[in-house]
Amino acid sequence: MRLLWLSALACNGNAHALLNYPRFEEWQEDFEWLYHPLLPSTHTLAEVEEGIDGVEILLVDGTLEEGLVKNRLAYKQLFERYAVEAKYIVTVGTCATFGGIFAQGGEGRSGLHFSGERRHGFFDGFWEKTLSLPGCPVQPEVLAGTLSLLRSEEPLPLDTLHRPKYFYAHTVHDGCTRNEYFEYKIDEHRFGALEGCMFYEHGCQGTFTHGSCNKILWNGVHSKTRAGTPCMGCTEPDFPREGLWHTSKRMGIPARLPLGVPRRAYLSLAGIAKAFHIERLERPMMEDKRG
Amino acid sequence: MIKEQHRAEKKAKRRNEIVRTALKLFAEKGFYATTIPEMARDLKMSVGNLYNYFSSKELLAQEIIREISAYLGGRIREINEAELPVREKIRRIVTIYFETARDEPEMIDFFLRVYLSNREVFHEGCEGMICVNEFVTEIMIFFDDGVASGELKNQDFFSAFGLFMGYLGGMVFLNGEHILPKTLEEYVDDISENIYNALKAS
Q1: Which of A8, A7, A5, A6 is CA-nearest to residue A68?
Q2: Which terminus of chain B, N or C, has fewer Cβ atoms within 10 Å?
Q3: Comparing C-alpha atoms, which of A183, A184, A188 is closest to residue A201?
């Protein structure tokens, strides 16, 4: 399957992450890079600007900016030319999907279809064939896996933001190794420690962020929460929020609650859970000589 | 089927009578001075049968506090769900609390004289705020909404909770000791205003 990767305002993080895909070599055999800024490709960027044939999947990476010129051509012109022809368009990473970090650095910047949560209409004609793969960066398994699924023409259910449900239906909380601490409302005040929940004080957004990073681990080893830092909500339209290491609260109640949980039900459960003092969870397990 | 339903209804009614009677006795005489045989006598039932409903005095006391919490929580929930400014909500919560103290004095007496005073009775089964959860949850929602609307100052929950509920509990206690020169109702406006001034956003 033939791929064209067009970067706008991008840090190349998504491309670097893809290089860490453990099965990259084997996976690549099913694809041809017509053009990729870092990988060996059939064409140069100059040739892409002149016009090439056969694009099946157009990969859009980075924040779109009004008036951005790629080499000689305006990015918008380049995008539209290949978007018409491509069977699918995939926004790779949060910048291309929602605007992300770079959208906060200047005027006239957005994702392909969204500015944050707001859907804009610049490229409405391409909405139906677009898939969103947010993440900062997107996990290589999610990108490679989605492209393989498109190649094999498997049904690929999408959510309302066009994120494939296989990877984005559940929240980052699902698979978090700190769930025991979440259940009993025990926060952790030392970044980097392996124990404690970071939802109550430390800004963890895992309970309302869609993603698979606590099940498909980075480099097969880690996720943010497993490494001891809170989930920053990088797959969501409002990424990056302010105060990423701080839980915003109203009289002690988290301003944002776990996804879909009614406030009254949450508060009732939290009140009960807090009443139990689970000594085992309140002491640092790794240092505890009692076992 | 109908017979079974009738039996269940009868049992629920009897259970309710036990709770009401126990509440009255506990509130009047305190937890330890009240005995199960005394309750059974007032209810005109055997001690053995009473134990079929509640296997200990502690469990009965825990059920009572849960019911009081549910009653007050339900009434505050109605206020929370009404579109009212925070100032008015405070006035209504104060009114409900004082009305309950007047109309159902044993409820507040039980809360102050048994629940708060005999903590050992509630250690197992009513840890933390479990048995007053419905009431506390509604107060939390009241605060959360007040901060979200910009009417209340964002602060530590317990600082605000203690100020609000400690104040009301103290007034009811003084009233129960016949120290207050006026009726509780006559204090509603002043107390509501004081609470609002203490909690409002600057």
Answers
A1: A8
A2: C
A3: A188
CA distance B155 to chain A (A): 5
Helix (H, G, I), strand (E, B), or coil: what is residue A130? strand
What are the residue boundaries of the structural domains of chain A, listed by start?
Answer: 2-168, 170-286
Beta-bridged to residue A2, according to DSSP, are A32
**CATH level 3 topology of A2-168:** Rossmann fold (3.40.50)
**What is the domain class of A170-286 according to CATH?**
few secondary structures
Q: What SS3 class is residue A250?
A: strand
CATH of domain B58-199: 1.10.357.10
- Minimal Cα–Cα distance from A259 to chain B, Å? 18
pTM for the predicted model, two decimal places:
0.88
Task: Mark yes or no for CB contact B137/A252 under 8 Å.
Answer: no
Give chain A positions within 8 Å (CB) of B127: 275-277
Q: What is the pLDDT of residues A105-121, one digit of tens each?
A: 989 999 999 999 999 98
Picking from B127, B133, B147, the nearest residue to A251 by CB comes out as B147
Could you tell me if A274 lies within 8 Å of chain B, comparing CB atoms?
A: yes
Angle subtended at Cα A235 by Cα A153 and Cα A228, rounded to the nearest 5 degrees: 125
* pLDDT tens digits along B138-184: 999 999 999 999 999 999 999 999 999 999 999 998 998 899 999 99
Residue A13 has pLDDT above 80, yes or no: yes
Question: Which of A250, A271, A276 lies closest to B154 in CB terms?
Answer: A250
Cβ B172 vs Cβ B184: under 8 Å: yes
H helices then E strands: how many in chain A?
Answer: 12, 11
Residue B163 corresponds to which tokens in the numbers above?
């100020």
Domain ranges of chain B: 58-199
